[in-house]
Structure of ABC transporter ATP-binding protein:
Amino acid sequence: MIEVEGLTKRYGEKVAVNELSFAVRPGIVTGFLGPNGAGKSTTMRMILGLDRPTAGDVRIDGMHYDGLRDPLKYIGALLDATAVHGGRSAFNHLLCLAQSNGIPKARVHEVLDTVGLTPVARKKAKGFSLGMGQRLGIAGALLGDPRILMFDEPVNGLDPEGIHWIRNVMKSLAAQGRTVFVSSHLMSEMALTADHLVVIGQGRLLADTSMADFIQRNSRSYVRIRTPQRERLFDVLYEAGVTVVETGGGALEVDGGKPERIGELAARHQIVLHELSPRQASLEEAFMRLTAESVEYHAHAETPPNEWGDGWKREG
Ligand SMILES: Nc1ncnc2c1ncn2[C@@H]1O[C@H](COP(=O)(O)OP(=O)(O)OP(=O)(O)O)[C@@H](O)[C@H]1O
């Protein structure tokens, strides 16, 4: 378990982390989300004792990082996969880490095998691809067989196979009862990986809740309908007190409506339906909604490119 209490970090005038309190529990994957500059990396660095908090406290399984003997046995982290001495081989990099934490050499072979780097174990890390570097970073995190694991943007720059692999690693670590805390900007990936979310904006806590609850609270659920008898259905729903909005492509939408009720009303009035589908916004939309006010730097494109979809729009 990671417990963060009243954590604050100031850099001069800049408050990077602002009285943040949350707990990361074992047995599940907890996602750490926030727009650029929200303070995620700073928080993770303070959890690892790499940055000193201006105020507040962090406990790792009830203890302070400074007080941990052989810290890799308690918490393993991937913060910056490029932070490896490029001239060292993967094996030697891990061996150095192991030796400074009282971890036997045999464990180096084990973790190299786990991450699939055994064939290149003697190759210099500077020749590694981004994906191999991430795998090496993960091997380092696993080295001490810690109960707590923390990953900052572990899928950055990885190909789909690498992303899939990391997702499974995180899920299986959590299934073993470990505490897994992971940040990512890839919302679709986070939606597949995390069970719980801690969301921050401008250093402050915005949400600390389950994935399902976060999406439900911060997004719109609606029913999408397509019918060749639009006017007729419009009238029937209006009379029944159901508010319908027309959308592009000839579809109708009912906010928060129940598909059963709409289907029954349509049937009673013999209206043909071509589509009646309940829709839930994605994690990405929910995230954009919640954090719209706390984004540090907004793009100011007059007309956004099509591929941005509607998610870029701010409310109100
Ligand atoms: N050493 C530093 N000196 C001054 N300001 C800093 C320093 N480190 C971070 N900051 C500022 O603190 C804020 C939080 O930064 P941080 O890197 O923790 O955010 P983040 O959520 O990890 O962002 P990103 O998603 O872009 O990685 C930013 O405004 C950043 O510019």
